[in-house]
Design a protein that fits this description.
By secondary structure, the chain is mainly beta. The protein is built from 3 helices and 45 strands. The strands form 11 sheets. Strands 6, 8, 9, 12, 13 and 14 form a 6-stranded mixed sheet that branches.
């Protein structure tokens, strides 16, 4: 066989029709159209982007190239070919977008480790610096191992340590943060480096609920992160309950065994601490009195060994102090009864000094026992004062309100702590069951007691 080489040297830009004849007959494929264009000049093309700035990328890190051929007067399409040089696998750009006329932005794949070569051509001619080469490597965070938890439960305010192994990840910085799923609050966690690249993340829950613990190595989240932890109350904390007292403003009751491990905290709407008084009465009942100084929503928290008890936190709005209430309070001088403690059936009389005799007849007094029941007070109006007589029948914190024309004035109610008499401590009650609709209680006598007995109470 023989072949003929035909050389054609066009002198002008344009379209040419080429005919090839054999014995005056067109051969196969003849005639055909040939377009002649000016030679592509890529020297004016500018490139920028992360692929120009560095040649090593981590997994999922963006590798981009910006091509500006707007000043090169090139009317041709850009051809891109991406090849992993070890496997010769061909990839396509992750993004291929025209962001302006003659300006193209390319984003290359970094989701597999390897050595990549990127050829960018215009009219089959490489642009400056093409082909581009870059390397994709795995981050050290991919090799960090978090301790597997058999039971992802923690107790409130108890320190929990989460083990982390960074020995395979190399040198880097381990950090962690946590957020409470329900309240959306988040905070950083302390990390402690031990030995042989073994570390611990210190976690201490402040409230019950689900927490997500995020673990990072050199600011990249590690495998199996986040970790779900469920914070629960200690069993002892769950045995205490917080509830408001009906009819008693800013007074709350806590039910549970007597202990010195209870603490309380009240915050106003500005996050400032509010004064309070916590006292134990008897029969496993505490009284908690709040002394608010401003309006707005308040939050009351009661803790057992740092763990919130049932019913806590509790939100409430205290009674507002008006200018009129403050003016009315200035007509009275209240006694300081904060340190006063009396016993049941003990009668006391205390004075309240008055400025403004014309309003004396508009004053009234209301006393409520620990259970919100109104207790009668004795009052004697004298020339410059009122004598108030108080005889409590039940132990616990009592609250005395002073009203002017039915409206409570500022700086009250004030509180008197009542302790049980010695005789009331000489008996105890035991529930023996229900018989034919009757509750049977047995009153057990202790030493020196002569007035204890048993009782049958109809079941209502």
């Amino acid at each position: 066989s023989s072949s003929v080489v035909v050389t054609f040297l066009p002198m002008k830009v344009g379209e040419y029709i080429v005919e090839v004849l054999s014995d005056e007959d067109h051969i196969t494929g003849s005639p055909f159209l040939l377009r002649v264009a000016e030679e592509v000049d890529t020297s004016m093309i500018e490139t920028s982007g992360s692929v120009r700035e560095k040649n090593c990328f981590y997994f999922q890190e963006e590798a981009s190239l910006l091509i500006d051929y707007s000043t090169s007067k090139v009317d041709a399409d850009v051809d891109v070919m991406i090849k992993e040089t070890n496997s010769n696998v061909i990839f396509q750009p992750v993004k291929h977008e025209d962001i302006a006329e003659g300006v193209l932005r390319l984003v290359f794949p970094t989701y597999e480790a390897g050595n990549y070569e990127v050829s960018v051509m215009l009219d089959q001619k490489h642009i400056p610096f093409s082909p581009f080469n870059y390397l994709v490597v795995s981050r050290g965070s991919d090799k960090v191992e978090i301790e597997t938890l058999k039971k992802p439960e923690v107790m409130i305010n108890q320190i929990f340590r989460l083990g982390v192994d960074t020995s395979k990840a190399g040198i880097g910085v381990l950090t962690a943060k946590c957020h409470h799923v329900r309240s959306k609050t988040s905070f950083r966690l302390q990390t402690v480096t031990k030995s042989n690249f073994k570390s611990e993340i210190i976690f201490q829950a402040a409230q019950t609920g689900e927490y997500l613990v995020h673990v990072y190595f050199d600011n990249d989240e590690v495998p199996n992160s986040p970790i779900m932890l469920v914070a629960k109350q200690p069993v002892e904390a769950q045995s205490y309950t917080l509830e408001p007292v009906d009819g008693a403003c800013n007074v709350f009751v806590i039910r549970g065994k007597e202990t010195d491990r209870l603490t309380a905290r009240c915050l106003d709407s500005l996050g400032e601490l509010v004064a309070h008084q916590l006292s134990y009465t008897e029969n496993n009942v505490y009284h908690l009195t709040i002394e608010p100084s401003n309006q707005g929503h308040h939050t009351l928290e009661v803790f057992f060994d740092g763990a919130l008890i049932s019913g806590s936190p509790l939100s409430f709005v205290p009674e507002a102090k008006t200018d009129k209430a403050i003016e009315h309070a200035n007509m009275l001088k209240l006694p300081d009864l904060s340190d006063l403690t009396i016993k049941t059936n003990q009668e006391i009389t205390f004075p309240i000094e008055i400025n403004g005799k014309d309003k004396v007849n508009d004053l009234s007094f209301v006393c409520k026992d620990p259970f919100g029941q109104v207790l009668e007070l004795g009052t004697e109006f004298q020339e410059n004062r009122i004598l108030v007589t108080f005889k409590p029948l039940k132990p616990g914190m009592h609250h005395i309100e002073i009203l002017l024309k039915g409206n409570r004035i500022v700086d009250n109610p004030f509180h008197i702590s009542v302790k049980p008499t010695e005789s009331s401590k000489l008996c105890s009650v035991k529930h023996e069951g229900i018989f034919n609709g009757v509750v049977k209680l047995k009153i057990i006598k202790k030493e020196k007691s002569t007035d204890c007995d048993s009782a049958l109470i109809p079941l209502l």
